[in-house]
């Protein structure tokens, strides 16, 4: 994929007007208030991953509507407590995976809470009660005709509750909670940064779920193509679809976020086009920095992004 979006000089200034629903804040206040009426009811069970350098726990807690969400807590086996904690969110179609996949942050001296994505991955967290079959795609349009029933209302609420949970864990310093993720995970981290005031810093890589309408207009790649296909089949409901998506657009959350954020973007990314990433970044209300990877696609910086994140995060949490 060659450069297909705006030139970098224009991207740095690209700040489209926000087209958010009038009741955006009321919607999310009501959603989160309802979720917090349910006790977190955290279950933290030691898990033998045969990794003596870390402590691993299988974690379950109450998310949207009190429904149970799975997570891993991985922390260094030795060292002082409490620890800063990275709350890690996952890309589209993935789940929490296995503990050995999440050793970076404990190796750097952090705890990491790896939050499962309901209805995705291997099915540890069903989307809805009685629905134990994980989905690999199709979630972009699940319930999309009504913000009350849209899939990402449930997923974003789970993510906010995960930060609530992290702040209660004995191993975690509640004043040093970081949200992180790439692609869908980056979009979730961006949303939580705008919804939860306890977030100390945010690592937002090649974020998905941002500037939906523009994304469908300039890329044929999935998952945004799921929305395009739905609109093609439901020609009379296009505006209804984008009205719902207005409650979940990353730019609207970014405009409410105050924690320092480190973003990344790939200028050849046809999955999450760079103009959609910059649209949210340029609206981000807190201190921010953008790491640009000119010749990369949706992998963004990959392993090259980690050496950028580690010193930046060390400085934020000092």
From TrEMBL:
Positions that bind substrate: 92
InterPro entries per the UniProt record, alphabetical: AB_hydrolase_fold (IPR029058), AXE1_dom (IPR008391), CE7 (IPR039069)
List of catalytic residues: 183, 269, 298
All residue ranges annotated as the Acetyl xylan esterase domain in the record? 1-314
The residue ranges crossing the membrane are: none
Out of the domains of life, which is the source? Bacteria
Task: Cite a single GO BP annotation.
Answer: polysaccharide metabolic process
An MF annotation (GO) of this entry = carboxylic ester hydrolase activity
Pfam families in UniProt: AXE1
Q: What is this protein called?
A: Cephalosporin-C deacetylase
Biological source species:
Acrocarpospora phusangensis
């Amino acid at each position: 994929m060659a450069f297909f979006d705006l030139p970098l000089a224009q991207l740095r200034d690209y700040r489209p007007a926000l087209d958010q629903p009038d009741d955006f804040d009321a919607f999310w206040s009501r959603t989160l208030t309802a979720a917090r009426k349910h006790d977190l009811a955290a279950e933290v069970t030691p898990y033998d991953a045969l990794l003596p350098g870390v402590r691993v726990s299988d974690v379950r807690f109450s998310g949207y509507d009190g429904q149970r969400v799975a997570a891993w807590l991985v922390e260094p086996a030795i060292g002082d407590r409490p620890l800063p904690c990275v709350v890690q969110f996952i890309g589209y179609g993935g789940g929490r995976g296995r503990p050995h996949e999440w050793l970076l942050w404990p190796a750097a001296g952090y705890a990491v809470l790896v939050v499962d994505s309901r209805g995705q991955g291997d099915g540890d967290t069903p989307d809805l009660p009685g629905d134990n079959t994980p989905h690999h795609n199709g979630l972009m349009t699940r319930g999309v005709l009504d913000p009350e029933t849209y899939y990402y209302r449930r997923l974003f609420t789970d993510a906010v509750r995960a930060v609530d949970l992290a702040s209660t864990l004995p191993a975690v310093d509640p004043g040093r909670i970081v949200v992180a993720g790439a692609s869908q995970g980056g979009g979730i981290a961006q949303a939580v940064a705008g919804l939860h005031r306890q977030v100390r810093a945010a690592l937002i890589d090649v974020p998905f779920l941002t500037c939906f309408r523009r994304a469908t207009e300039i890329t044929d790649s999935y998952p945004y193509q799921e929305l395009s296909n739905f609109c093609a089949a439901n020609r009379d409901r296009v505006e209804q679809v984008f009205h719902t998506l207005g409650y979940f657009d990353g730019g609207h959350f970014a405009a409410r976020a105050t924690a320092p954020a480190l973003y990344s973007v790939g200028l050849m990314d046809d999955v999450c086009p760079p103009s959609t990433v910059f649209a949210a970044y340029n609206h981000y209300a807190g201190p921010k920095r953008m790491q640009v990877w000119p010749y990369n696609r949706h992998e963004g910086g990959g392993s090259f992004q980690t050496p950028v994140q580690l010193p930046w995060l060390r400085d934020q949490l000092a």
